[in-house]
């Protein structure tokens, strides 16, 4: 069976230290977490940064500090920066860290309710972010929370802003988006254009079952404290790596070798 790329979203913009005391916030904590995740089988870090007080940030200087620290601690790991940021962040700030030319960045394909907030992704802003990613040679990971968003990728490709094969991340279980019902993942996969790569990020209690479903269906998997803070119901995870290690064990059992960062680069078409 094809290798599975394990991504870890180690920090996020919404998770708090109060709810998850092991959340990595500083560049040093993020570097340590990234190393542990790499040792556990992860090849991509989905990266948000925080200021020292825990506030979500899109400051390029802070991203640079975190990226440098992660590169030193976990050489070779793929770093995917967030252009989603926190709900309510301006599009200008969301775009700023792209100038650091990371290998990958998230590109959110639509506006949606996000818990009690609205996660704004105006069509012109999606185009603007995609154009910047193209300019800087950054591979977009297409974040999709609803089936219609998946179908909108073709429009960006027609405009020459993204290229095929696409790499989708299905983020399922956000209150306001599609839930983590297994039928939703089946439906998403049924809509994929030929040759597309896909992974799933299940939010909260959906993280583990969707990960297992993706392993069986041939997809890639994202775990981490951005999406889920628990190991079991009511049991806060000790580390991001603990969540990665569990998926690696299950992947081994179902015959999906875990991709190294180099294999992940080949699969995703990242050119160094
Ligand atoms: N924090 C969410 C509102 C991304 O990283 O691109 C959006 C998010 C997606 O986390
Ligand atoms: Zn994110």
CATH superfamily annotation: Aldolase class I
CATH structural class: Alpha Beta
Alpha carbon gap, first and last residue: 26 Å
β-strand percent reads 15-25%
> Helix coverage percent of residues?
25-40%
- Spell out which ligands are present: (5S)-5-amino-3-OXO-hexanoic acid, zinc ion
Number of domains: 1
Number of distinct helices: 9
Based on secondary structure, the structural category is alpha/beta
CATH topology group: TIM Barrel
Task: Please give the number of β-strands.
Answer: 14
Give me the CATH architecture, please.
Alpha-Beta Barrel
Order of strands, widest sheet: 1-2-5-6-9-10-11-12
Compressed to H and E, one letter per element, the order equals: EHEEEHEHEEEHEHEHEHEEEHH
Mean pLDDT: 97
What is the alpha-carbon Rg in Å?
17 Å
Which descriptor suits the 3D outline? globular
Main pleated sheet: 8 strands, parallel, barrel
Q: Are there runs of 5+ residues with pLDDT below 50, and where?
A: none
Brief sketch in words of this structure:
By secondary structure, this protein is α/β, with parallel strands linked by helices. It has nine helices and 14 strands.
Commentary on this structure:
The longest helix is centred in the N-terminal third of the chain and has 14 residues, at 27-40. This protein has helices at 27-40, 60-73, 91-95, 123-136, 147-158, 182-190, 207-217, 240-253, 261-268, and strands at 6-9, 44-47, 49-50, 56-57, 78-81, 104-108, 112-114, 117-119, 139-144, 167-172, 197-202, 220-223, 230-232, 235-236. 37% of the residues lie in helices and 20% in strands. It has a single domain (6-268), classed as TIM Barrel (Alpha-Beta Barrel). Strands 1-2-5-6-9-10-11-12 form an eight-stranded parallel beta barrel, surrounded by eight helices. Strands 3-4 form a two-stranded antiparallel sheet. It has a two-stranded antiparallel ribbon with strand order 7-8. Helix 1 (27-40) packs across helix 2 and helix 1 (27-40) packs parallel to helix 8 (240-253). The mean pLDDT is 97. With 272 residues, it is α/β, with parallel strands linked by helices. Strand 9 (139-144), helix 5 (147-158) and strand 10 (167-172) form a beta-alpha-beta unit. It binds (5S)-5-amino-3-OXO-hexanoic acid and zinc ion. Zinc ion binds at residues 9, 12, 46, 48, 82, 84, 106, 226.
């Amino acid at each position: 069976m094809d290798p599975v790329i394990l991504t870890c979203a180690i920090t996020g913009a919404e998770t708090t230290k109060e709810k998850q005391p092991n959340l990595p916030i500083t560049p040093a904590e993020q570097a340590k977490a990234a190393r542990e995740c790499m040792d556990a089988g992860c090849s991509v870090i989905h990266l948000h940064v925080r200021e020292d007080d825990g506030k979500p940030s899109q400051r390029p200087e802070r991203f640079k500090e975190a990226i440098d620290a992660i590169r030193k601690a976990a050489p070779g790991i793929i770093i995917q920066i967030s252009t989603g940021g926190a709900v309510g962040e301006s599009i200008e700030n969301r775009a700023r860290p792209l100038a650091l030319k990371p290998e990958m960045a998230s590109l959110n394909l639509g506006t949606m309710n996000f818990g009690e907030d609205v996660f704004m992704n105006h069509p012109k802003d999606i185009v603007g972010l995609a154009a910047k990613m193209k300019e800087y040679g950054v591979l977009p990971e297409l974040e999709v929370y609803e089936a219609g968003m998946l179908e909108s990728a073709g429009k960006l490709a027609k405009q020459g802003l993204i290229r095929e094969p696409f790499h989708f991340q299905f983020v399922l279980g956000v209150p306001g988006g599609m839930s983590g019902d297994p039928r939703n993942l089946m439906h998403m996969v049924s809509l994929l254009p030929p040759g597309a790569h896909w992974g799933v990020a299940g939010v909260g209690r959906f993280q583990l079952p969707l990960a297992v479903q993706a392993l069986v269906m041939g997809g890639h998997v994202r775990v981490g404290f951005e999406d889920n803070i628990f190991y079991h119901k009511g049991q806060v995870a000790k580390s991001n790596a603990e969540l990665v290690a569990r998926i690696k064990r299950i992947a081994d059992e179902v015959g999906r070798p875990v991709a190294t960062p180099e294999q992940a680069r080949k699969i995703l078409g990242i050119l160094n």
